[in-house]
Amino acid sequence: MRLGVDVGGTFTDLLLHDERTQRTFQAKTPSTPQDQSIGVAAGVKLICEKAGITPSDISLILHGTTVATNAVLEGKGARVGLLVTEGFEYTLHLAKSWTPGPLFGWIVMDKPDPLASLADTRGIPERMNARGEVVRPLDIEAATALIDDLCGSGIEALTISLMHSYANPEHERILGRIVAERHPHIPVSLSSDILPEFREYDRAITTVMNDYVRPIMKRYLSRIEDRLKDEGVTARLHIVRSDGGLMSAAAASERPVHTVLSGPAGGVTSTVMIARRSGFPRLLAFDMGGTSTDVSVIIDGEPTISRSTEVGYFPAKVPTLDVRSVGAGGGSIAEVSELTKSLRVGPRSAGARPGPVSYGRGGTEPAVSDANVVLGYLPPVLLGGDMALDVEGARAAVKRIGDVIGLSPEDAAKGIIDIANEVMLGALRVITVQRGLDPRDFGIVAFGGAGPLHANALAELLGCYPVVVPPSPGVLSALGFLEAEFKNEFVQTFIRTTRGLDPREVWSRFETLDGKARAWLDEQEVAPADRGISYSLDLRYEQQGFEVTIPLPDALVKRAGALDEILDTFHATHERLYGVRFHVPVELVALRVVATGATPSVEEALPSAGSKDVSAALMEVRPSYFDGAFVDTPNYDRSKLAVGARVEGPAIIRQYDTTTVLLPRHYAEVDAQGNLLIWPVSRGN
């Protein structure tokens, strides 16, 4: 029994998979933002009741969490002390000397305070150069005094980030030992451990962020393990990384910066699996929840991996799945601007408490979900009848908006939906059009509690078909956690021109990284048959500021051959990505080794190949708002749609974890994997 748990802004989603029977069970329970572990424990209890098992029957829990992200975004992290090389105390303040925004120097930037204040920063007398050679010896006596002063000031965690420690970490390690001996209660992170790469600000801010969220993550994981133990759960707990891999709870406690995009990773992982199984290798992942919408692009069945991300204003240089988020979800609040009298939606959200007005939990401001209720897209009850909606309350709240701008409740609700769709459309354009990709070459996978409500409208705007609604879209991220693999990356900065470079210098360093990767796999108790190790080089043209990661064929690594083949691949890749190939020397920047540990795939029971007659799935006919008027619209029970069944739009297709809106002039078919495929009628079928 494996359990995936995805904590969202409104609901906590759970998916339980029984490997013996290949059955899955799902549950949704309200999230508890004040302490996410409360909602998780309640969800575990609920899903065990549904599956008819005891909590002790669960063997593994895979958990995606937003604890680290929320701590940074809300400014509620720990008080972090910072040790830097003397003279570099302003590293976090200077950052990259770059002002965001389209107007750059012509705008006023409200720059946030660094995650470690200048008052909690100390300059250590020492210096290494870029080749790891000691320029100024470490003054241990002065360093000890500075450490005692800082650690006695009330800091909760300590970051050590010295100049060029990626090339030689000796001084950082000495300082770490001093802290461990004299102040063992203070957790310490070394930048040479967290991010052994060049670029001083990126390394410093990433390591500081790790310490900023570290005490909070420790407390959270301790609470959740205690609550699960109280419920009788004895399973191991693993946390999902930002790159879609897995790490143990103990590792997540020490390196929580690797979980800053933990939540959205599961949905992207599932979209990759759908791309590989469905025969649609180019897909857009569209995850619309209660608070935000996350989008990503899948090309040739593979996700896009980024070497850095941003959490609010702060960069985090950790491997992540390339996900873009916007503040538009089912709980996004609609309001009229006092200044312009225009309607706007989000990013403010009703969250889990009080939630949209229709949830009946005390919400008073209309949200996107309320607009869907008014238009008849959402039925009066959700979650298989477990959650009744306040239809009249939602209509009254939307009517107040309409009265202000002179629209009927229905037209006001349609305006709310259209604006929310435009916000989400902007995110989809960023990952396609702005990268030179034509969205019409992609399908779109709709998931999250609200994704299938809006996906057909977005596909119509972008021209991307089919819309793929998987069998369990509301808990798809939790399913992605079950299909994730163990993953960790090991890197060494090694800046050298490739002109005259002895390949043995490269391969000898790969041997060291390979040893670290195998040791990590041992720590994670990954079976030898499930292990995988891949190699890559970061290369760039000399004088360039950014590099391109080039995978290395296993055969080349094994024979430790010349680098000519890799240089040819770099030239071709650079030309494909940027449209140009330069005839200048190539520079080596870093070596990377990625260790993976495979986990059993989730083989869900396929839908029956019964009758294609959809009349047996008809639940009721209710009025829904299409093309400016209410239309009697059939509502179907998705669980009764067999493989090959075809539903003509307009229609509403209902299931436990979500509702799918099928627009006029479209139809939906059930494919062999149980996905709903939505196409325009103009396709010729």
The rounded distance between the terminal residues' Cα atoms is 42 Å
Let me know the number of strands: 37
Report mean pLDDT, rounded to a whole number.
Answer: 89
Oligomer: single chain
The radius of gyration is 26 Å
Domain Hydantoinase/oxoprolinase N-terminal: 2-181
InterPro entries: ACX-like_C, ATPase_NBD, Hydant_A_N, Hydantoinase_A, Oxoprolinase-like
GO molecular function: isomerase activity; N-methylhydantoinase (ATP-hydrolyzing) activity
Protein name: N-methylhydantoinase A
Question: What do these coordinates show?
Answer:
With 685 residues, the protein is of the alpha+beta class. The chain is 32% helix and 27% strand. The chain is built from 17 helices and 37 strands. The strands form 10 sheets. Strands 13, 14, 15, 20, 25, 26, 33, 36 and 37 form a 9-stranded mixed beta sheet that branches. Strand 9, helix 5 and strand 10 form a beta-alpha-beta unit. Helix 2 (67-73) crosses helix 7, helix 9 (262-278) crosses helix 14 and helix 11 (391-405) packs across helix 12. The longest helix has 31 residues, at 200-230. The two termini are 42 Å apart. The relative contact order is 0.10. The model has no long low-confidence stretch (mean pLDDT 89).
